[in-house]
From TrEMBL:
Keyword hit for Mitochondrion: no
Name of the protein: Glycoside hydrolase family 65 protein
Keywords of this entry: Glycosyltransferase, Hydrolase, Transferase
Record organism: Paenibacillus residui
Residue ranges of domain Glycoside hydrolase family 65 central catalytic in the record: 323-682
Source organism superkingdom: Bacteria
SUPFAM superfamilies: Galactose mutarotase-like (SSF74650), Six-hairpin glycosidases (SSF48208)
Domain Glycoside hydrolase family 65 C-terminal: 692-753
Length: 762
């Protein structure tokens, strides 16, 4: 692993408002429980926009979702992730002059994200209007060792200044969420979701408690400070804000450091979040900052040892990949109450909702490198299974469970059902991810605990959503992954995934029965599953209708897709993309145009369902009519281009995917990272260039090396083993780093991996 690629730095910071908001995202700190956008501690002048936010994964309030017509079952209330507190504020005064990046002279400035040590750093050499110079270094960390903890280490070094240094730190509970009425991807209106209850000092710790307006939840934030030298300290509450002030003297060459500890606690996870916050702060005080830094680095050392993807020959691309993998570990929830929001914990885009993105784009990374986190993601889905059952009843189904398209606590948050609740494929997506986890781990214990119940209950839904017609099983009025084509009959992706889901529900029924009949009987008894239902699963799978056009040798996206007029993508002005912001949905639905891969994605995840010529012809057909308006798109096209031997095209698509956030190619990273694309980048290397597939028969590997790379390597976990694939020009190696001997398939041929295999690169 190249440690240089674990440090991303921007020098001479631009103070353009768009760049400031972008850097708030790129340098944010998160650990899966909490996230803090990287705002300037001192704030911005009036007139500047900022998304100043501090979030807890899975913590929410309810918000009204107005419907033009109150039709049965339409969602009228959604959940939204909350800005829970503002503990970033620190203002600096030297002899009364207030530090600002917009006043005086910024001689030097930089921001650094250290992905090996797990902190971000801001460095400024500032010359005040009175020509006093100080060097300011701010280090921020969201702890992986103690998830509720966020720290700021604020150091001031005098260059030529001699006099009074004053730091004023604020702890604000009266905060609001960001909104933009012109962008459907963020909240369109403002509302006071957090209602302050109390503000106090308990000893040296400020403690603020707030309630949500509707959801009945509570959050506590506690803040404590440490100073590096003697001085005058004061603490007071003013208009509900806790304020800490420190004054000291500073001479040329001397440094003064203020450490600000923040802990968050919420009532979802704690019976008394106030008491829990105080206990956590006591624990933090006993540990100390230096040890917290050591634990942070230790955690990330282990993380990178298991998951690092090294690319040789393209430093820019390598940096982008490391950035993406770091954001994944920052974003993923690590308990059964949280998941991975579409923007992680970096911003308020999509209001903190969880989608299918988790299972189809991000969970593969964790299943392959960190199965314990994958377990938590499955447990989260099990935790909201009752709400999925309720959702199925609301949608008219007497049995089974239907997961919501977007949610936080389990209830549907999608107000526009044609591209929301109609995406029944989410049931198959969740099932597919659980099956893949099992194939990689053989973890029957988790299947008996929660995985099997999810699989069976969601499989039941297909029997009611579909029906037999002329000897085939059809599924009508659903929406596939392509949201420019909605409410169709027999979407290929949905049908083939439902077929796979039903087949595996039957397989797990018999497999788990043989493994542990006692525990399995409890699962079956709980949900009342019968042998007759299992037989119905098998029969529906065998008769599943999969659209196929013999003349074109492709799988039509759905029954009506090929009869529509093709959209003129080349003739569409560039300022009209993404199409969803410039054309009425019905106009889009009448055309052959794809926002993102649909059938092409199905051919990736279930390649054995069709012959290679059909997969190739489908790729060529859909490539011409796909806009890639979704960040979930280019990574899948890269994977499939790799499979089809279109290596230059695979590389081009991969570049677009990997650089999306770090280089802000979609111009909206200010709202938060594109979390699904982060996982998609990983898949484009491992599943794409690496040719990895996880099947019932075992692991399959078929690597290829892009012409512009010298090589690459990655590690994966398979059952009890840690395996590394090292690809170089002309040959590649498969190394068994830990675990027992494995049978694997390389370019379709079976090999026994005892310690090392060397194979000629095709």
């Amino acid at each position: 692993m190249n440690n240089d690629n674990l440090r991303f730095q921007v020098r001479q910071l631009s103070l353009d408002n768009d760049d400031l908001m972008l850097n708030e995202t790129l340098f944010h700190n998160a650990n899966g429980y909490l996230g803090v956008r990287s705002n300037f501690e001192e704030g911005y002048p009036d007139g500047y926009l900022s998304i100043r936010g501090q979030y807890i994964n899975g913590f929410y309030d309810f918000a009204e979702m107005k419907q033009a017509e109150k039709l049965y079952g339409l969602v009228e209330e959604k959940q939204t992730m909350l800005n829970v507190a503002d503990t970033q504020g620190i203002k600096l005064y030297i002899n009364g002059e207030e530090f600002s990046m917009f006043d005086g002279e910024v001689v030097e400035s930089s921001r650094t994200l250290d992905m090996g040590r797990g902190w971000s750093m801001r460095e400024v050499l500032w010359r005040s209007p009175e020509k006093h110079e100080v060097r300011i270094t701010v280090k921020r960390m969201a702890s992986f060792h103690l998830l509720p903890l966020f720290t700021i280490e604020y150091e001031v070094e005098s260059v030529n200044f001699d006099g009074e240094l004053r730091l004023v730190s604020t702890h604000i509970g009266n905060v609001q969420n960001y909104f933009n009425p012109n962008d459907p991807r963020v909240a369109g209106e403002t509302f006071q979701y957090i209602l302050p209850v109390s503000a106090e000092f308990v000893g040296e710790t400020s403690l603020l408690v707030s309630n949500t307006s509707k959801s009945g939840l509570q959050v506590a934030s506690a803040v404590r400070h440490e100073c590096s030298k003697a001085g005058q300290e004061s603490r007071f509450i003013e208009d509900g804000t806790a304020i800490y002030e420190w004054k000291t003297e500073l001479a040329p060459g001397e440094k003064a450091t203020l450490v600000k500890y923040t802990v968050l606690s919420d009532s979802i996870r704690s019976a008394s979040c106030r008491d829990e916050a105080l206990k956590l702060m006591e624990r933090v005080s006993a540990i100390g900052l230096n040890r917290l830094y050591e634990e942070q680095e230790k955690y990330l050392t282990e993380y990178w040892e298991n998951c690092a993807v090294n690319i040789y020959g393209d430093d820019e691309l390598s940096m982008a990949v490391y950035f993406n993998l770091y954001q994944l570990i920052q974003s993923v929830g690590k308990d059964a109450y949280s998941n991975i929001a579409a923007k992680g914990l970096s911003g308020e885009g999509y209001e903190g909702h969880y989608f299918w993105d988790t299972e189809m784009y991000m969970m593969p990374f964790f299943s392959l490198t960190n199965p314990e986190i994958a377990k938590s993601l499955i447990r989260y889905r099990h935790n909201i299974l009752d709400q999925a059952r309720d959702h199925a009843r609301l949608m008219g189904h007497a049995r089974g469970a239907l997961y919501p398209w977007r949610t936080i606590m389990g209830k549907e948050c999608s107000g526009y059902f044609p591209s929301g609740s109609a995406q029944y494929h989410i049931n198959g997506d969740i099932a597919y991810a659980i099956i893949t986890y099992y194939l990689l781990t053989k973890d029957t214990e988790l299947m008996l605990e929660c995985g099997a119940e999810i699989l069976f209950e969601t499989a039941r839904l297909w029997l009611d959503a579909g029906h037999e017609h002329k000897g085939k099983f059809h599924i009508h009025n659903v929406t596939g992954p392509d949201e420019y084509t909605c409410l169709v009959n027999n979407n290929y992706y949905t049908n083939v995934l439902a077929q796979y889901h039903l087949q595996w529900a039957s397989k797990f029924y018999h497999l788990l029965q043989e493994q542990d009949s006692g525990a399995f009987s409890k699962v079956i008894g709980k949900i009342g599953l019968t042998e007759a239902e299992i037989a119905a699963f098998r029969e529906a799978a065998e008769r599943m209708y999969l659209p196929y056009d013999e003349e074109l040798d492709i799988n039509p996206q759905d029954d009506s897709f090929l009869s529509k007029k093709k959209w003129d993508i080349a003739g569409t002005p560039k300022d009209k993309f993404p199409l969803l912001l410039h054309y009425h949905p019905l106009y889009l639905y009448r055309h052959q145009v794809c926002k993102q891969p649909d059938t092409v994605l199905a051919h990736f995840i279930l390649e054995d369902a069709q012959k290679l010529s059909t997969i190739r012809n489908s790729f060529n057909y859909y490539e011409k009519i796909t806009t890639h308006d979704s960040s979930l798109s280019t990574c899948i096209f890269s994977i499939m281009a790799s499979k089809l031997g279109l290596h230059d095209k695979a590389y081009e698509y991969f570049g677009e995917s990997s650089k999306l956030d770090l280089f802000n190619t979609h111009k909206n990273t200010k709202d938060g990272i594109h979390a699904a694309n982060l996982g998609g980048t990983y898949m484009a290397i491992v599943y794409g260039f690496g040719g990895l597939r996880v099947k019932e028969q075992g692991l399959f590997i078929a690597p290829a090396l892009p012409d512009l790379w010298e090589g690459y390597d990655f590690k994966i976990r398979f059952e009890d083993s840690l395996i590394q694939i090292v690809v170089r020009r002309g040959a590649f190696e498969v190394l068994l780093l830990k675990g027992t001997t494995k049978e694997i398939h390389i370019y379709g041929e079976k090999h026994t991996l005892k310690d090392r295999l060397q194979v000629e690169l095709k």
